[in-house]
Design a protein that fits this description.
The structure holds two protein chains of two kinds. By secondary structure, chain A is α+β, with helices and mostly antiparallel strands. Chain A has one domain. Chain A contains two helices and one strand; from the N terminus they run H-H-E. Chain A is elongated and about 50 Å long. The two termini of chain A are about 20 Å apart. Chain B is mainly α. Chain B is built from 18 helices and three strands. Chain B is globular and about 65 Å long. In chain B, about 40% of the residues are buried. Classes of the chains: A alpha+beta, B mainly alpha. At the A-B interface, helix 1, helix 2 and strand 1 of A face helix 1, strand 1, helix 3, strand 2 and helix 4 of B. Strand 1 (about 45-50) of chain A pairs parallel with strand 1 of chain B, so a sheet runs across the interface.
Chain lengths: ~55, ~350
């Protein structure tokens, strides 16, 4: 079976960029609902970064 | 990469200044439920949503601060939902809408759809042709595995990409690596060789610690295998790409054996090495995967009976894996064919 290490360019791109957690805004919304409410209140778009710590 | 650059990039900071930014760890807390709600398939995936939570933009992967900022800017510039943007595009196509829809369908892994929209965007706004061409080539590469694009179609885009001013040596090396992979998959190796040789010529003097160095080492293996047809040299170069003590690391042993299997070379050693991986492994999940590699190597060596025995061992270790059962059927069919 192919090793995950060799599992293709897309996976490499995706996994290579996965560790997005360092941008945490500690003062930001704690939950998704809060984030949505804040975006509504500020009349802004909410940008969601879906990541994992793999 | 995003995390590293986000903390230092003024471009990213500037892009995020105009939006509310929220990170979702898709494996913790409310993350899995939100990821499921938005049909997230890979990481990172980014969504820009309106106050109702409806997507106005979405895109996959992180491709540098500029591309990230462009995507965020598209979301703030036009806050219509993606559904509305699709309807608008049908009535009055624009490059902006085509790019939004290209990223949208790419996020759903519809590579052919993404390529179609990027090509439309390229026609609608020639000023952004370079950006579109990079994406067209990349998504064609992803889609090529499913037979979505021919080598000739991709070659046209590769040549366009190479003609772009500002393409770096690293870009050209990456492109050569991708073209060679495609050429091999589509039985067009002679057509991939010129890209391979150009990239290797350009790689002369490239520092060994540069990001492209590993790709170059892979291209040297390809050159030995495909151009020089020197199998011992290719095997040696491939082994040299592995880290120290790889022969004691089951994952690396499997990785090397799989490479041998894919190339149909050095199969005797490959079988011995992957069986060592089976012995060294500390869990049944990995062990069953290594047995599958062993089975494939046996098949390549023409030993169908041994392939069946190995995959049956894998099934014993991982009875829930349907893939192994499919493999067993494949090996049994090969044996039946062999017996005539």
């Amino acid at each position: 079976m192919r090793s995950p290490v060799l599992a293709g360019v897309l996976t490499a791109l995706v996994l290579g960029a996965a560790a997005a957690s360092a941008l945490a805004d500690e003062s930001g919304p704690a939950t998704f609902t809060d984030a949505l409410a804040l975006a509504q209140q500020q009349n802004k778009v909410l940008v969601i970064d879906f990541y994992t710590d793999w | 990469m995003f995390a590293r650059e986000a903390s230092s990039s003024d471009i990213i900071k500037g892009a995020l200044a105009n939006v509310v930014f929220f990170k979702v760890d898709c494996e913790k807390g409310e993350g899995p439920a939100i990821a499921e709600k938005y049909s997230v398939r890979g990481y990172p995936t980014y969504y820009a949503v309106n106050a109702a939570g409806e997507p106005v933009e979405r895109w996959i992967g992180y491709d540098g601060p500029e591309a990230f900022a462009r995507a965020v800017a598209a979301a703030t510039r036009d806050t219509r939902t993606l559904v509305a943007k699709k309807e608008a595009f049908a009535k009055q196509p624009t490059a902006d809408l085509a790019l939004s829809l290209a990223n949208d369908v790419a996020t759903g892994y519809d590579w052919a759809g993404a390529v179609k929209y990027f090509k439309q965007a390229r026609e609608l706004d020639p000023a952004r042709a370079d950006e579109c061409t990079r994406n067209i080539f990349t998504y064609m590469f992803y889609g090529a595995d499913d037979g979505g694009f021919t080598f000739d179609e991709m070659k046209v885009e590769a040549d366009r990409l190479l003609a772009i001013n500002g393409t770096t040596r690293e870009d050209r090396i990456d492109l050569a690596s991708m073209i060679v992979q495609l050429a091999r998959k589509q039985d067009r190796v002679p057509d991939g060789v010129p890209y391979l040789e150009r990239a290797l010529a350009e790689a002369e003097g490239l520092p060994e610690d540069s990001p492209a160095a590993r790709t170059v080492r892979g291209l040297r293996v390809d050159h030995a295998l495909l151009v020089e047809k020197d199998i011992p040299k290719a095997v040696g170069l491939r082994k040299a790409m592995l880290p120290e003590n790889w022969e004691q690391d089951p994952k690396r042993l499997n990785q090397f054996a799989w490479w041998c299997c894919e190339n149909g070379i050095n199969l005797e050693e490959a079988e011995a090495l992957v069986m060592r991986a089976v012995e060294l492994s500390d869990n049944d999940a990995d062990r069953s995967n290594y047995l599958d590699t062993a089975a494939e190597v046996c098949l390549k060596r023409g030993n169908c009976e041994e392939a069946i025995a190995r995959i049956k061992q894998a099934i014993e270790l991982a009875p829930d894996r349907d893939y192994f059962k499919e493999q067993l059927a494949k090996f049994e069919a090969a044996l039946a064919q062999k017996k005539g």
